[in-house]
């Protein structure tokens, strides 16, 4: 408590706790304007009122009030306690009788003080809460302008810095976007080059080798045992050729505008024969479909066929694309083990779930219908244009 440290404790008479006069201390209070203080009292450990002061006082109070356990604890250990004033305390009743001063509604605060010899005493101060609130509002008002002014100055100082940082971040974002786009273009160019080199080199060589092996195997001059070996070798080369063409489709999707949707879908199902799956492709009335629509259909078909070959354990696979009015419909149907859609799509169909957004952006919908042991049907309908 500031009042105790600055005004009371340094000026307590040495023998006040023994009943000495507190006139010197009273003179200190009389020379200071205490706006919020209604009364100041100093109590001895025995509960004797050794000193009292209140505004416009002509004399002090003489009364004994035994200290409460809480007051004794503060007297021994220190601390500050605030509580509502009790009008029924003996000293407060005496004050009301002598001066008509009512402490009702006031705030009573007490703490420990010591004189210059180290004798503990209890300092008691009564405050008017209304005056405290008014003073607090005045102080808060003063600091409010200081705070607002400081914030305003801080904003003025930091605004140019924020603008510079924003421009740098924007520029860095654009540079990252350009770098990413460049990386995508470079990656696409490289995949296209690899696919072209494989198609023009290894694929053509394997195709020629398969044709030559078949031709030699059918030559009547070749022994029967050698014919069987050559037929087997030719079949193995053709299987490898189909697998390589499927790999080329994975490395770089075909140019659907050039190759046509039906040929591209046929390449997708090429590995089915090696997996023991009878695959068929049907494409009808899709001439009015845009290149973008064909790309969306091919992308979904690629993921669906991949799932069938890896997870479905199917015997048959049908990839059907049909134009219906201004829409294009894709159906990928298998007779594999299926799954329970109510339990959520399993990991095998996670890729299809990732294509929902792609299909929706093209004004379409993707639906997966399946049941355990009943196969799976993947259906996509998108706008033709």
Question: Can you characterise this structure?
Answer:
With 385 residues, the chain is of the alpha+beta class. Among the domains are: 2-127, 2-Layer Sandwich (Beta-Lactamase); 260-383, Heat Shock Protein 90 (2-Layer Sandwich). The protein has helices at residues 2-8, 23-30, 69-77, 90-99, 129-217, 224-251, 256-259, 261-268, 271-274, 291-312, 350-354, 356-361; strands spanning 37-43, 49-53, 80-84, 107-114, 120-127, 278-284, 316-324, 327-334, 365-370, 376-383. The strands form two sheets. A five-stranded antiparallel beta sheet has the order 2-1-5-4-3. A five-stranded mixed beta sheet has the order 6-7-8-10-9. The chain is rod-shaped, with a radius of gyration of 48 Å. This is Signal transduction histidine kinase.
Q: Which strand order does the major sheet show?
A: 2-1-5-4-3
The 3D shape can be described as rod-shaped
Strand content: 15-25%
List the uncertain runs.
none
User: Which structural category fits the helices and strands?
Assistant: alpha+beta
Q: How would you characterize the largest beta sheet?
A: 5 strands, antiparallel
Q: How would you state the average pLDDT, rounded?
A: 80
Protein name: Signal transduction histidine kinase
Main location: membrane
Subcellular location: Cell membrane
Keywords: Cell membrane, Kinase, Membrane, Transferase, Transmembrane, Transmembrane helix, Two-component regulatory system
């Amino acid at each position: 408590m500031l009042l105790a440290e600055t005004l009371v404790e340094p000026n307590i008479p040495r023998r006040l706790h023994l009943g000495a006069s507190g006139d010197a201390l009273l003179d200190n209070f009389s020379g200071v304007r205490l706006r919020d203080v209604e009364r100041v009292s100093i109590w001895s450990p025995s509960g004797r009122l050794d000193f009292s002061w209140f505004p416009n006082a002509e004399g002090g109070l003489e009364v004994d009030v035994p200290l409460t356990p809480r007051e004794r604890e503060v007297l021994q250990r220190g601390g500050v306690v605030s509580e509502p004033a009790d009008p029924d305390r003996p000293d407060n009743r005496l004050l009301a009788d002598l001066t008509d001063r009512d402490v009702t509604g006031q705030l009573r605060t007490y703490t420990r003080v010591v004189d210059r010899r180290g004798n503990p005493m209890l300092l008691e101060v009564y405050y008017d809460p209304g005056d405290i609130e008014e003073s607090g509002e005045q102080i808060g008002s003063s600091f409010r302008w200081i705070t607002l002014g400081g914030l305003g100055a801080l904003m003025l100082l930091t605004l140019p810095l924020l603008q510079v940082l924003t421009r740098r971040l924007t520029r860095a974002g654009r540079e990252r976007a350009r770098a990413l786009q460049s990386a995508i273009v470079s990656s696409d160019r490289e995949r296209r080059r690899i696919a072209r080199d494989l198609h023009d080199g290894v694929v053509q060589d394997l195709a020629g080798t398969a044709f030559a092996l078949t031709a030699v195997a059918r030559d009547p001059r070749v022994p029967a045992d050698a014919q069987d070996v050559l037929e087997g070798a030719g079949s193995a080369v053709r299987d490898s050729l189909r697998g390589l063409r499927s790999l080329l489709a994975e490395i770089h999707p075909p140019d659907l505008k050039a190759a046509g949707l039906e040929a591209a879908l046929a390449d997708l199902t090429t590995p089915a024969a090696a997996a023991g799956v009878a695959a068929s492709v049907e494409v009808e009335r899709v001439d009015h479909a845009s290149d973008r629509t064909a790309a969306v259909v091919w992308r979904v078909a690629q993921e669906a066929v991949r799932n069938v070959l890896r997870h479905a354990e199917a015997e048959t696979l049908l990839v059907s694309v049909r134009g219906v009015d201004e829409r294009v419909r894709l159906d990928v149907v298998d007779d594999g083990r299926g799954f329970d859609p109510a339990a959520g799509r399993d990991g095998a169909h996670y890729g299809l779930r990732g294509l929902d957004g792609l299909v929706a952006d093209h004004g379409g919908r993707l639906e997966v219908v399946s049941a355990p042991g009943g196969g799976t049907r993947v259906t996509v309908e998108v706008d033709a244009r």
